[in-house]
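Lab notebook page, bench 4
Experiment: in silico fold of construct C2
Operator: M.H.
Input chain length: 416 residues
Purpose: comparison with the prior construct
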Amino acid sequence: MNDRYDVVIAGAGPAGAQCARDLAARGYDVVVLETEAEEEFPRQSNKSTAGTFHSMMAAFGIPDDVVMQYTDSVVLESPTEHYVREQTGAVLEFADFKRFLVKDSHEDGAEYRFDARVTGPIMENGEIAGVTYNGDEEVYGDIVIDATGPSAPLAKQLGVVDLKRENHAIGIEYEFEGIDIDRPGFADLHDAMMLRLDHNIAPGGYSWIFHTGEDTAKVGLCYIQNGSHDQYSRNDFTIDDYLDHWLETDPRFRNATRLEGKQHRGSAHIQAPDQLHTDRFMAIGDTVPSIDPLWGEGIHKCMLSGRAAAATADSCLKHDSVEPTAENLDVYETLWHRDVAPNANRRLLMTQLLYLASNERYDKLMRDLQRLDNDTLARANKGDIRAIARLFDTDDVSLLARFAKQQLNLDLGSLL
């Protein structure tokens, strides 16, 4: 095996594998180090709900054979109301999707080393020059990229990311058959991705049903372990208890059966990044993190961050006279804030405010969305201030006051 490459990538998830895919297509020598064994990949990292949109499928050339179900709509639910928006999407078989990215990039020349756990950076003259893995094995690169997700062994040691426990989101999902997809009293979930806001099911978070064909669906929930969760949660409930409670009380699951071996658990951090890169180094995907703070969509964001990092690496490596210093890699920050997560801070504030609201306010939100024009939610989702303002009225004074107090406490806490 070689010990020197143009680019070394830690992690073969959507961000890392897409970055390798783009770099290999440009003819660079790239190696990807993946913790899992090749014959099992991605059994341990098959953790995504895998809901995404046609924009990702088209932009990255993803084939139909990794799609479980194409969808026509997104449904938002509250305890007693719902809102339907026509929006096409796709529910992926996440394991097949990850294997496709690896295979496609490998065919273009990317090298993969499985069963290779990255442990830390190799430093030379104050800059990263490579990584150690499996204890004492080494590999070197002109540029090193951390795509390992929340574990972030390189980004943490280099001081690029500081993932906060209070921003840690956890999730659980099962796949079911026998679900009543069009239950009277609920929205028709045929060919739909449904997200539910209900503190009795996911305090400080949301739950979902993603239709995967006939009477089958992915069903799960996640929440952020922060003040909103503490306010609405039950002390004696784990995340498994909340899912069981939903399955026991929602009539759509009365005759549902869990599919064997189709359980997924995962975690991510919902916070704005302080830094994305340093000399000869970039962090991508959930290492940053790049996940959509409002609705949790991560696949497209991770793919975009991988592509942005590949373009940035190319801008340096194609010129013999350009060193990949922090200054020359700064284009990655520009691309990330423009293409991966525009208006990231506004969307994060929207997320924090949304999860502070009560179940009654969630019901009112659904009614408000039903009466507003179809573009209001889309524009609010992008951080448009005027669209966000249309979602509030005078009855929200107390909610906004609680939100302002929470933000003040967070700001004071960061100064102490």
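Observations: The domain at 4-50+93-162+271-340 is CATH 3.50.50.60 (FAD/NAD(P)-binding domain). Confidence is low (pLDDT under 50) at residues 412-416.
Next step: discuss at group meeting.
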